[in-house]
Amino acid sequence: MASSFLSIERLTQRYPDGKGGEFTVFENASFGIEKGEFVCILGHSGCGKSTIMNILAGLSDPTSGVIKMDGQAISGPSLDRGVVFQNYSLLPWLTTLKNVTFGVAARFPQWTKQQVTDHSIAFLEKVGLTGDAIYRKPSQLSGGMRQRVSIARAFANEPKLLLLDEPFGALDALTRGTIQDELIKVWSGTDQTVFMITHDIDEAILLADRILLMTNGPNARVAESVEITLPRPRTRTTIVEHPNYYAIRNHLVQFLGERSVLLAGESVGDETHRPETVRIDKTEGAADAEPLLRAVPK
Amino acid sequence: METLSENKKAALLSVLLLLVGLFVWEMSIPAQKTVEALTEYERLTGTGQPKAGVPPPSQVIAKAWEQLSNPFYDAGPNDKGIGIQIGYSIYRVLVGYLLAALIAIPLGFLIGMSRVAHKALNPFIQVLRPISPLAWMPLALFVIQDSEASAIFVIFICSIWPMLINTAFGVAGVREDWVNVARTHELGPLKTAFTVILPAAAPTIVTGMRISIGIAWLVIVAAEMLVGGTGIGYYVWNEWNNLDLTSVIFSILMIGVVGMLLDAALGLLQRRVAYVE
Ligand SMILES: Nc1ncnc2c1ncn2[C@@H]1O[C@H](COP(=O)(O)OP(=O)(O)OP(=O)(O)O)[C@@H](O)[C@H]1O
Ligand SMILES: [Mg+2]
């Protein structure tokens, strides 16, 4: 684990509780993410997902602990870590295209204007934005289109790590579906690592290589790391027919429904938390995976 | 009538109101009696003296025509065209105003971005801001020893506050998300200030600039009445001393028109920097 592309080591975040004391969001959380992995994190509201993400982005500092990317401890924000914010965070005075070129020009300062524009247009195309829409201001776009711009802006910068905080939280189911497909399309074929927060179990199963499960806070823990043993490319309609699908889904539902509360932590002092790896594989020839199914209530 | 657009109806109504107003004004001014028509009693008591009455609009319009057809003549210190006088006033307003902007906007940035700077400077702003700009005039005249520069200083001091306060307010209110966008793109402080904070705060800043130019134009008239010499304020006062009420009314109207144009220019800028979230 120590050699992971991204390793989170003994991360602790405490905040003042407003009554003179302090409360612990999470304590000594440790986990790793491999290069090129797509990792989703699931957990109830308030357990500290956004807090972890902001620390990974370098936008806020943890109370203690270190994050290493490529073996280097990170400090502060960097162009190597792109962020897609939940509320899109487009600059409303710039056109769609300028919102993307703004980032690209910062990332590749040696490029000519033309290169920057071409590159940006190419990425906007990948998320389905073409024509005169790219010359409009964000206020003239629909919520779905705005989120596409935000994704294009992040990917166009070709960061090593992409952080997405509930990128589809505000979108309707249909739009969600299309943009999820676009996200996968842009991500596959790159060696980019993605870390995404979501509330949606099906979205997580569709997109992720691995799902991290968090228990409820305070003193939340990243309790499990569930491997999504579904072959790619995946589509919404085919994955449900795979034998592993319901087993994985049930496991996740069980966790969020019951065990996230049961496991809700107390302060553990100096102990380091590592998530338990859960591999669910019901396909033939995977019977030896049975012992790992102990976490699945029968 | 139903086929007319809202704008046309409004324009028509405006013209109508103007005509009615002018007509009532014209009618309400009694025709001045000629000396021969005065009764002996009136002549003795002097009540019938041909005094300077309020002129009818027709006279004002004639004056306006005369003045505006040759606005830039210069026949000595007390007889300059209206264009020259207004030119002096605009020049003073712009110099004082631009100097104020040069200081208010960067300082407002500082106050908006740093809570310490805000807390340190706020007491000074709160005390200095309510002072009537004309109250500075004697001090300015004494220290600067130059009436021209003193007038500019008064403009400077009155236009600095709205710009300063609005800039600080706008900068402090820039959404954290946008600043985070700048941070995740590793923009330096200067780049962040110009590409994110300035455009984000621009509508608020320009609103402050618009308030300032309005105040500056109000104050320049009073300031020029005090310092004298040139300018539209001096012109009004001078014509009053000459009992030329026609010129007084004409210049009052000119003050209104120029003020409106200055405001419209800033209004244009305001529309250019506006954005919808
Ligand atoms: N700046 C802060 N000061 C104090 N407490 C904070 C601060 N930021 C977050 N918290 C607290 O930390 C906890 C975790 O917050 P966080 O935003 O990470 O939750 P989350 O898992 O992202 O929730 P959601 O799914 O609703 O977005 C919450 O209890 C929240 O109240
Ligand atoms: Mg959150």
TrEMBL record, chain A:
It holds the Pfam family ABC_tran. Residues 6-241 form the ABC transporter domain. It comes from Planktotalea frisia. The lineage of its organism: Bacteria, Pseudomonadati, Pseudomonadota, Alphaproteobacteria, Rhodobacterales. One of its GO terms (cellular component) is plasma membrane. GO terms for molecular function: ATP binding; ATP hydrolysis activity; nitrate transmembrane transporter activity. The gene is cmpD_2. It is an enzyme of class 3 (hydrolase). Keywords: ATP-binding, Cell membrane, Hydrolase, Membrane, Nucleotide-binding, Transport. InterPro entries: AAA+_ATPase, ABC_transporter-like_ATP-bd, ABC_transporter-like_CS, ABC_transporter_ATP-bind, NO3_transporter_ATP-bd-like, P-loop_NTPase. Belongs to the ABC transporter superfamily. It comes from the Bacteria. SMART domains: AAA. This is Bicarbonate transport ATP-binding protein CmpD. Its main location: membrane. Its EC number is 3.6.3.-. It is a peripheral membrane protein. It is found in: Cell membrane.
